């Protein structure tokens, strides 16, 4: 009974949206539920054992191996969230639309999103960085840095659209900057000066045309024309955020949970 109760706690609060997945209907069976809850429990234990106050967490929502990427979606996970312990804070795309919202979720629900692999990467910043991130999460800044026009492959240095990993990165920028950051343009300017570099994803012409025509949450018109025509899409990926955090914060450490 205690184990079942713990699993239910990991699911709360519950919202229905998706990011980093194909956003297609799928019936989750009992095996999927158990695997998701087991991963959530392991991640929660790893977070507790780490002594962290806040961390960045990633999941494998789809197979991105053809782009040499492993993780599809990133979020903040906050130990002392006002709504409960170790809640996930992230941007999610409303399925089938070009819109997104910010959500607070339990760890269980975070890993119920039709995973390709039951694996998570946890990036734990240094103590000073954690304190700054927690302060920003408690403020109104995350909402001001949210761009509701969602694009899975949004350009890293444009405010036309935003993907879920981009919101995490820009919120991280607001936390790390010595000067106040209250809009996305300022966050992106800071990121350029701080040396953030997106990972270029190659997307063929056929794939670009197909994605733009048939997917509401994919667009390419915000990317520089020459890069776009060469199939080089400079978007914010989980791996690029992790690399940037490690480069800036020598105390940051990464934990992989399977």
Description:
With 258 residues, this protein is of the alpha+beta class. It has one domain (2-257). It has 10 helices and 8 strands. The chain has helices spanning 2-11, 30-50, 107-110, 127-137, 141-144, 164-176, 184-194, 205-214, 225-229, 238-248, and strands spanning 54-60, 73-81, 84-93, 100-105, 117-124, 199-202, 232-235, 253-257. The strands form 2 sheets. The protein has a 6-stranded antiparallel sheet with strand order 4-3-2-1-5-8, with helices on both faces. Strands 6-7 form a two-stranded antiparallel sheet. A hairpin with a 6-residue loop joins strand 3 and strand 4 (100-105). Helix 1 (2-11) packs across helix 2 (30-50), helix 4 packs across helix 6 (164-176) and helix 6 crosses helix 7. The longest helix has 21 residues, at 30-50. The two termini are 24 Å apart.
Keywords:
258 residues; alpha+beta; six-stranded antiparallel sheet; 10 helices; 21% strand; globular
């Amino acid at each position: 009974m205690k184990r079942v109760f713990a699993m239910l706690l990991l699911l709360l609060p519950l919202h229905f949206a998706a990011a980093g997945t194909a956003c297609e209907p799928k019936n989750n069976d009992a095996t999927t539920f158990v695997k998701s809850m087991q991963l959530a429990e392991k991640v929660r234990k790893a977070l507790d054992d780490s002594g962290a106050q806040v961390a960045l967490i990633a999941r494998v929502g789809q197979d991105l191996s053809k782009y040499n990427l492993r993780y599809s979606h990133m979020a903040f996970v906050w130990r002392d969230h006002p709504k409960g312990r170790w809640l996930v804070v992230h941007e999610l795309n409303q399925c089938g639309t070009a819109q997104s919202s910010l959500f607070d979720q339990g760890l269980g629900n975070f890993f119920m999103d039709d995973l390709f692999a039951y694996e998570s990467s946890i990036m734990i910043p240094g103590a000073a960085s954690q304190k700054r991130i927690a302060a920003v999460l408690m403020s109104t800044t995350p909402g001001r840095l949210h761009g509701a026009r969602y694009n899975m492959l949004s350009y890293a240095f444009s405010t036309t659209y935003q993907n879920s990993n981009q919101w995490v990165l820009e919120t991280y920028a607001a936390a790390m900057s010595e000067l106040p950051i209250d809009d996305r343009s300022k966050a992106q300017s800071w990121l350029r000066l701080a040396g953030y570099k997106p990972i270029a994803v190659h997307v063929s012409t056929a794939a670009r045309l197909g994605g733009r025509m048939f997917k509401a949450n994919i667009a390419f018109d915000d990317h520089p024309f020459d890069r776009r025509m060469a199939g080089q899409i400079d978007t914010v990926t989980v791996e690029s955020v992790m690399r940037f955090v490690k480069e800036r914060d020598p105390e940051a450490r990464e934990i992989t949970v399977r």
